[in-house]
Amino acid sequence: MHPSLLPLLSLLLIKSCEVAQCLYDRMQILAFNHLNFMNPAENEKLSSEKSLEAMWQFSQTYAKRTGTYFCAEPSVTAVVIEGLAKNKDDLGAPLCPCRHYEDKKAEVHATFWNCPCVPMRERKECHCMLFLTPDNEFAGDKQEISLEEIKSARENMA
Ligand code: SF4
């Protein structure tokens, strides 16, 4: 490579790091705000202990079964698990918490977005970033999360 290209290459590398950091920040904000997709009245209450524990266990078991990993930022995982548990309480099924629905009951009935959703089951695509394939830049190295971590993260949402 011609030496005169080095400054340009350095600049490009710096820029791509900035973009990655920006995406990471954005992802966290989205995850923390996902409950805003819900009816404001539904925001008033967090999930029950029973549903939270059920979705916590499910998430760990499913990650191990599919060879996927939780996000490097545990609060993202915690917020999604809480969202699934809340939907399980409110709707009777863990409807994906990262989407907007006109009619949640109809969506539960359709089953496409009940976790694990069809894109996850068919292609390992989890847009909530709960289950990440190892090649995903946001993937951590854990398939477990403590219940305490989830509870601590959701306290910030209350
Ligand atoms: S995107 Fe699919 S697999 Fe991921 S949390 Fe939502 S429903 Fe579950």
Measured as a percent range, the helix fraction is 40-55%
- What is the overall pLDDT average? 82
Q: How many β-strand stretches?
A: 0
Which series of helices and strands comes N to C? Answer: HHHHHH
Contiguous runs where pLDDT drops below 50 for at least 5 residues:
4-20, 32-42
Small molecules held by this entry: iron/sulfur cluster
Radius of gyration: 18 Å
Major beta sheet, specifics?
A: none
Q: Count up the helices.
A: 6
Structural class: mainly alpha
The best one-word shape is globular
Terminal CA distance reads 55 Å
Characterise the protein shown here.
The structure is a single chain. The radius of gyration is 18 Å and the shape is globular. The protein is built from six helices and no strands. By secondary structure, the protein is an all-alpha fold. The protein has helices at residues 6-33, 49-66, 74-91, 104-110, 118-123, 147-155. Bound molecules: iron/sulfur cluster. The site of iron/sulfur cluster (SF4) has 13 residues, from loops. Residues 80, 96, 98, 113, 115-117, 120, 126-128, 130-131 line the site of iron/sulfur cluster.
Core attributes:
158 residues, 54% helix, 0% strand, binds iron/sulfur cluster, mainly alpha
Please write out the topology.
Layout: H1 6-33, H2 49-66, H3 74-91, H4 104-110, H5 118-123, H6 147-155
Helix pairs in contact: 1-3, 2-3, 3-6
Bound molecules: iron/sulfur cluster (SF4).
Iron/sulfur cluster binds at residues 80, 96, 98, 113, 115-117, 120, 126-128, 130-131.
